[in-house]
Structure formats: structure tokens, C-alpha cells
Amino acid sequence: MKQGIHPEYREVVFKDSSTGFMFLTGSTRYSKDTVEFEGETYPLITVEVSSDSHPYYTGKQKFADAGGRVDKFKKKYGM
């Protein structure tokens, strides 16, 4: 690989905001937020959907409304 052009690759923790599920993986994403995970401190990236909350993987809907989007849609379209 050419030196100096690629972002730093590090271990980060991704946290599902709807279920609290966390997992450790490698990523080039950067975050100032940190979390204690399995005895170590890692950068924390918060996501709205992960395999723990996505209906495709769970077979069911775990959350109905993230951030008032359903109410906003109903208000906008008069439902």
C-alpha cells in the first residue's frame, strides 16, 4: 500500500442505540466518544440499526419509532 494516503485502521465499538447491543470490530471511522468494553477502552460509534435490531436478522420488529419519525410522517401526510 502507498504510505500516508490511507486512514488509520483501529478497533472500535459500535453500539445499537435502540437495543444497547455493542460489538467490537475494526474500522477507519473516528470518534471522540469512548466506551469501556471487555476491560479495554475503545472509540464508540453509535448506530441506529444493527443485526440485533434489524427485522431481517431478528425476524420481528424491535422498535417502532426512532426519533419521532412515525409521528412526523403521520402529521405530514394527515394520517
Walk me through the structure.
- The protein has a four-stranded mixed beta sheet, with no helix packed on it.
- It is 15% helix and 32% strand.
- The chain contains two helices and four strands; from the N terminus they run ββββαα.
- It has helices spanning 55-58, 69-76, and strands spanning 10-16, 22-27, 34-37, 40-47.
- The N and C termini lie far apart (54 Å).
- The longest helix has 8 residues, at 69-76.
- The protein has one domain.
- The chain is of the alpha+beta class and 79 residues long.
Which helices and strands appear, and what pairs or packs with what?
Elements: E1 10-16, E2 22-27, E3 34-37, E4 40-47, H1 55-58, H2 69-76
Parallel strand pairs: 1-4
Antiparallel strand pairs: 1-2, 3-4
Strand line-up across the major sheet: 2-1-4-3
The stretches of 5 or more residues where confidence is low (pLDDT under 50) are none
Based on CA inertia axes, which overall geometry fits?
A: elongated
Binned, the helix content reads 10-25%
Number of structurally distinct domains: 1
For the secondary structure, the number of strands is 4
Main pleated sheet: 4 strands, mixed
N-end to C-end Cα span: 54 Å
Q: How many H/I helical runs?
A: 2
Summing up helix and strand content along with how strands pair, one would put the structural category as: alpha+beta
Bin the strand percentage: 25-35%
Oligomeric organization of the protein chains: single chain
Mean pLDDT across residues: 82
Radius of gyration over all CA atoms, rounded: 17 Å
